[in-house]
Amino acid sequence: MSTQRGSAPTENVDVLIVGAGISGIGAAWYLQKEHPSKSYAILEARGATGGTWDLFRYPGIRSDSDLHTLGYAFKPWVKEQAIASADAILGYLRETAAENGIDRKIRLHHKVRGASWSSADARWVVDVERTDTGERLQVKCRWLFCASGYYRYDEGFTPRFEGTERFGGRIVHPQHWPEDLDYQGKRVVVIGSGATAVTLVPAMAGTASHVTMLQRTPTYILPVASRDRIANLLRWLLPRKWAYALTRRKNIAVQRAFWRFCRAWPGLARRLIRYANAKQLPKGYPVDEHFSPPYNPWDQRLCMVPDADLFQAIRKGSASVVTDRIETFTERGLKLASGRELEADIVVTATGLNLLALGGIALTVDGVPVHLPDKVAFRGMMLDGVPNFSLAVGYTNSSWTLKIGLLCEHFCRLLTYMDKHGHTICRPERGETDMPTRPLLDFAAGYVQRSLGELPRQGMQAPWLMSMDYYSDTKLLKEDSVEDPNLRFSSHVREVVTSEPKVAVAV
């Protein structure tokens, strides 16, 4: 760390990683394995590592993907529960960081406000604020790796409801779960039908007087086993790493096959999911009213419920589902469009998340601000016209980390190529400025649709395609050449004229 008179403290690293969640910790592992001589740091705006798995504290929070694929390829998941609680996942992430010395590279309470690229210097100057002290500092880096995901961490999404000021109970959002919330013996209404809602309802049902999941439209919900019997058997028969690798391959194949099946035969997939739901629900239950969405499977992400816990709570009578629209809050609860009133002591607005591209970092390239909606993603990990910058966006139709691992491996291959050929600058460039584009995420979820106008875009074909297929990405990111006609490599070395022959000097 160096300090110049009258300026903020400045540090220099080869790679600066933004975010100490599952993506940032993974990126650090690959970087120090493949490039042990390169310096790096991880900046985390919050006061703890773990990202999503530390932020959310609502009851029952768990993964919606199995940990054999959501976990890292290099660190076996050894617990019996494949669908794991947030505490278990957080322990796994922090153990990974501690075992590999990554935790010593993490700077907590360091929020990145902006980053400016200089082609003359071939480096980023990153403006950072200490959120605990208000101090401002700068970090200079050759590469900026944004691993902050795309959720906004400081606020969730809550639509405007009429009459909330009249409600005599308490309204909470899962993203800001109060530590003092006592729902024992209380009537709870959970607004929403996504992954958060279907997690909260069974988790609260055992303590609350009754929990009602109030949804405007149904969501596809699929019961799955929380334990992977094959994985647990393989771990007993084989060395841990072999068992994990085989389980991971199996689960990747199953996830991909199920997604392709749903997209190819949506009608049949709908009927099979309905059958799985009806089998878990009481006889005569109105399945089509509450569990038959108006869209096809995987237009939005399916909700997985381990060991059918949501359906168990419904069978026991401790939870129920209501499909209706909210007209207004009342003193005692919610009045619905049908005229029905739901009485409640607590209302939980599990109404979704807000997206925030690049964690809200303002980028400039040689003094020109980067307008993200004008940019197109290259290989799902860079942006056209933005040098030495990488972002980590995982799969929406499978485990997030499967894509992140491939991106990190490709990033390291890219650094190796640049070192070998003496390049210091790498910049994707579109050959056609009027190239047809489409939204970055082909996903109908409300939280995505609300923010598409603020995100970069993707092209119609590789390398500008935001692929959601693990096998295609494996070939592109792990096996194919780093070189591409749309990827420009250069050096910031310039010639200096002296009395002697010309000498190449790096600046």
From TrEMBL:
Family the UniProt entry places it in: Belongs to the FAD-binding monooxygenase family.
Record flagged with keyword Transport: no
Protein name per UniProt: NAD(P)/FAD-dependent oxidoreductase
Keywords (A to Z) from UniProt: FAD, Flavoprotein, Monooxygenase, NADP, Oxidoreductase
GO molecular function annotations of the record: monooxygenase activity
Record InterPro entries: FAD-binding_MO (IPR051820), FAD/NAD-bd_sf (IPR036188)
Cofactor(s) for this UniProt protein: FAD
